[in-house]
Specification:
- Strand 4 and strand 5 form a beta hairpin.
- Helices cover about 55% and strands about 5% of the residues.
- By secondary structure, the protein is mostly helical.
- Helix 10 packs across helix 18.
- The chain is built from 18 helices and five strands.
- Strands 3-4-5 form a three-stranded antiparallel β-sheet. The chain has a two-stranded antiparallel ribbon with strand order 1-2.
- The relative contact order is 0.13.
- It binds s-citryldethia Coenzyme A.
- The site of s-citryldethia Coenzyme A has 22 residues, from helix 17.
Length: about 400
């Protein structure tokens, strides 16, 4: 028996088959722990989320995305020297190899940015091979800093190139988040005004996405990383998993669902009925969660941020009204109540991104940039585990018993 620092209990079955010839079966791993981890704690019943013990609400209020990334990756908040050095490293590695631009130019214009991002992150290994003569720690520090900084630059670059616009380079005088917004929206003919409140909103957006224990994409990073592949390849696997509409792809699907409700007169009730109909594959996007059986603490902060950002921009988004109305109607429905379905992080996040001017097809890329520190921290925790093992699940076979090859002339 094992017990975690917050009282979660587990049965260690690592010798089960050896001792009993039995294995366990747990499709979707809803009841199966894959690792011991000291990075993020979630309590799905109480709606608790903490990074290295610090509540996400405090980090959203007090910290920056770069500082939170340092906390997740290094296990402690940085002092001012450590933070300045980390910021300097991120700046030094913020450019993308110029030869990578031909990659972007040769993707079809309508390519989904997540497919581009996953390919480009794998390609980083070709441009930045293993560094000779460095200790493993130095090599890992430079590699993870490169990833954190270049993924943000590549995302902005792919946006500019998808529109046939000039690429805007990162600036040494701007913070991580301000640089991203500037690279996305600055132009030679119309300078982008950097608004501190919008930069702060982006910091909070990425802090809320920074880690979430063993979710689908993090589990993918750990599983692929367990083969001792380089960090770029493991992260590329995480990006691919996050793309799925049941996972990080949901933030784009939420906006598409709200736009469909809007186009159908704004009444969400028919969509809630569809979500309850077992014959209809439609799901309420942005609702429900494998772990949270109460309100996702991130969704609460994201919802408040919608009002703050829209007020700052003196604008209104009718989709926010539809989202609020959908939540109110849904949370009164017995099916929704019985199934413990609440808004998750994706339900309101798209409204914030729309207000910042991010195109809908880049919403999941925004999730990926936010989740990068978490993926890196989780990969690093695995890689530094003295008991690091190749992940290789077993199965229960249900196929045919022994049969033999039949020559084609003898087949029916
Ligand atoms: C993220 O894991 C993480 O931490 C992920 C994440 C992170 O930060 O990494 O939090 C980010 O991925 C958030 C989730 C984003 N996805 C969506 O919003 C897509 C819509 N949500 C659902 O597809 C669903 O809620 C999941 C996939 C998120 C979780 O589903 P589970 O835990 O696999 O449960 P399930 O699919 O087996 O559903 C259990 C029951 C079923 O009904 P019954 O057959 O038992 O009667 O709940 C129903 C489901 O039909 N249900 C829903 C529903 N979600 C679950 N019914 C309608 N609409 C929904 N959204």
């Amino acid at each position: 028996m094992l017990e975690g620092t917050e009282g979660e209990k587990a049965i260690d079955i690592s010798r089960l088959r050896e001792l009993t010839k039995y294995i366990t079966l747990d499709p979707g791993f809803a009841n199966t722990g894959s690792c011991l981890s000291s990075i993020t704690f979630m309590d799905g019943e109480k709606g608790i989320l903490r990074y290295r013990g610090i509540p996400v609400q405090e980090l959203a209020e007090e910290s920056s995305f770069v500082e939170t990334a340092y906390l997740l990756i290094n296990g402690k908040l940085p002092n001012s020297n450590e933070l300045n050095r980390f910021r300097m490293l991120l700046n030094d590695h913020s450019l993308v190899h110029e030869d990578m631009r031909t990659f972007f130019q040769n993707f079809p214009r309508q390519s989904h940015p997540m497919g581009i991002l996953s390919s480009m992150v794998t390609a980083l290994r070709s441009f930045y091979p293993a560094l000779e003569g460095l200790s493993e720690t130095e090599e890992t520090t430079i590699t993870l800093t490169r990833l954190l900084s270049k993924v943000r630059t590549m995302a902005a670059m792919s946006y500019k190139m998808s529109r046939g616009h000039m690429v805007v380079y990162p600036r040494p005088d701007l913070s991580y988040c301000a640089n991203f917004l500037n690279m996305m929206f600055d132009s030679p003919v119309k300078h982008y005004h950097i608004d501190d409140d919008l930069v702060q909103a982006l910091n909070v957006f990425w802090i809320l996405h920074a880690d979430h224990e063993q979710n689908c994409s993090t589990a993918a990073v750990r599983l692929v990383g367990s083969a001792r592949v380089n960090l770029y390849a493991a992260i590329s696997a995480g990006i691919a998993a996050l793309w799925g509409p049941l996972h990080g792809g949901a933030n784009q699907k939420v906006i598409e669902m709200l736009e469909e409700i809007q186009a159908n007169g704004g009444d969400s009730r028919p969509f809630i009925e569809r979500a309850k109909d077992k014959k209809d594959p439609f799901r309420l996007m942005g609702f429900g969660h494998r772990v949270y059986k109460t309100y996702d603490p991130r969704a609460k902060i994201m919802k408040a941020m919608c009002d703050k950002v829209l007020d700052k921009l003196h604008t209104h988004d009718p989709l926010l009204d539809i989202a609020v109305q959908l939540e109110e109607v849904a949370r009164k429905d017995q099916y929704i109540i019985d199934h413990n379905l609440y808004p998750n992080v994706d339900f309101y996040s798209g409204i914030v991104l729309r207000a910042l001017g991010i195109p809908t097809n880049m919403f999941t890329v925004m999730f990926a940039i936010g989740r990068l520190p978490g993926w890196i921290a989780q990969w690093k925790e695995d890689a530094s585990d003295p008991n690091w093992k190749l992940s290789r699940p077993r199965q229960i076979y249900t196929g045919p018993n022994l049969s033999h090859y039949v020559l084609i002339k003898e087949r029916g």
